[in-house]
Design a protein that fits this description.
This protein is mainly alpha-helical. Helices cover 76% and strands 3% of the residues. The chain has 19 helices and two strands. It has a two-stranded antiparallel ribbon with strand order 1-2. β1 and β2 form a beta hairpin. α7 packs antiparallel against α18, α9 packs across α10 and α16 packs antiparallel against α19. The longest helix has 32 residues.
Length: 425
């Protein structure tokens, strides 16, 4: 991508309009992308799926949405976000309609692959929106765009009631219709970004396709990807897994489970805008330290299984019970979601700063690895449930990931600081 330049506000296109419409479109796409967090529970019952099969089901659209992010980001850099965004939404809508006619596990998985294209919209929106804002405002702008993650909460609020009243097929059909409407609205209310317009008018020469991949050789890109694997991948995984978790652990019904899932998804989405602004002011590095430290504490507490402990007291054995009750659980996942939202914004604050000419490719790669977390982790959660028989095993896995992430980040930062100290004044 050519060096980022803020757009000149005109009647045809303004940064505010590009950001607003992109955020709304991403919200709809994210709602569709996480649809299996609700309808997957009904499908599990109807198809008699194991925990591992359920994990594969909810993770399949996340896999597609992750794998297509890099190529969609590159296409956005080369052909413009407006065209790629609309095409992405229409493709996902077609697959979501077909999902409503699937009645075997294999058919549902195949349809889920197409539904997952909706998740690729993130890479499109990041590359499109960033071209409208100068570097000092991109953290805030991309943080606001990331609020579209609230689509996961929207699905959890609304889908359970629609599913109970009319069935999971109706949920798929209505969500597909919303995508089609959003695609048309986006097309007719936006225009091409300033760089794409300059490319089409011949003012800027389009970069070679091979040059788009050059930054991916840097270890730093892969480190950012690991961060996003946790702050975004784990967010998506938990957004998909929590309804199933609270039903199994606390015995809630599907409507209550959906509301609890939304209580996690909402702060992990809405506060992303605050995370972007905070990264602009306090620095993305500081925000990442706080994100990892608090997340490590939350996942450590949540990973402790409910148990009875017996100690030998002065007058004989004494029994103590430890369990994270439902209200404590909701509070902890709320805090976890809040700090994940800050971390998601902080990771993407780095990308336009370090790679201003390759936001699509680098942002797509980071988004792809993060999204793969949303696919791999539900599978891992299901597998750990089957193997260990412990519901809290999912949080044990997340604690290991966040502990490794903060360790690598700290070592990398210390290495950078040592190099800077050795540079001649």
């Amino acid at each position: 991508m050519t060096a980022l330049q803020p757009a000149t506000p005109t009647q045809e296109t303004t940064p505010r309009r590009a950001l607003t419409m992109s955020t709304i479109a991403f919200t709809v796409c994210f709602a569709v992308w996480t649809i299996f967090s609700i309808i997957g529970i009904r499908l599990k019952e109807e198809l008699g799926l194991s925990e591992t099969q359920f994990g594969l089901l909810v993770g399949t659209p996340i896999l597609t949405g992750s794998l297509v992010r890099m190529i969609l980001g590159i296409w956005t850099d080369r052909y413009g976000g407006r065209l790629v965004y609309m095409s992405t939404m229409l493709t996902a809508a077609a697959a979501t309609v077909l999902l409503s006619f699937a009645h075997t596990y294999t058919m549902v998985l195949l349809a889920a692959l197409g539904v997952g294209v909706a998740g690729g919209s993130f890479a499109v929106g990041v590359a499109y929106v960033s071209r409208f804002f100068p570097a000092e405002k991109q953290g805030t702008a991309l943080g606001i765009f990331g609020v579209g993650n609230v689509g996961a909460a929207l699905t959890k609020f609304v889908a359970p009631f629609v599913m109970v009243a009319w069935g999971w097929e109706t949920v798929a059909q209505l969500w597909a219709a919303a995508l089609v409407v959003m695609a048309l609205v986006f097309w007719f209310t936006t225009s091409d970004d300033p760089v794409t317009r300059a490319q089409r008018s011949g003012q800027i020469k389009r970069r070679s396709f091979a040059s788009e991949f050059e930054p991916l050789k840097n270890v730093q890109v892969w480190r950012f990807s690991l961060y996003y694997f946790f702050v975004f991948g784990a967010f998506v995984a938990l957004a998909l897994w929590l309804p199933r978790y609270v039903i199994g652990v606390y015995g809630f019904d599907i409507k209550t489970a959906g509301l609890i899932g939304a209580a996690y998804s909402l702060p992990a989405s809405v506060f992303r805008a605050y995370g972007g602004a905070l990264s602009d002011k306090a620095g993305a590095r500081t925000v990442m330290y706080w994100t990892f430290a608090v997340s490590a504490a939350c996942t450590l507490i949540l990973s402790i299984p409910a148990a009875d402990y017996v100690v030998q007291g002065i007058e004989g054995p004494k029994t103590f019970q430890f369990a994270v009750g439902p209200w404590a659980f909701i509070a902890l996942v709320f805090v976890l979601g809040f700090f994940m939202s800050l971390g998601k914004a902080a990771v993407y604050k780095h990308i336009p700063v370090y790679y201003p000419e390759n936001v699509g490719a680098v942002g797509g790669m980071v988004g792809m690895i993060g999204g793969l977390g949303g696919f791999i982790l539900p599978l891992l959660f299901g597998y750990l449930n089957d193997v260990t028989g412990l519901w809290t095993s999912c949080f044990m896995a997340l604690f290991v990931i966040v502990a490794f992430s903060i360790g690598w980040m700290h070592l990398a930062i210390r290495r950078i600081e040592r190099r800077a100290a050795l540079q001649p004044a």
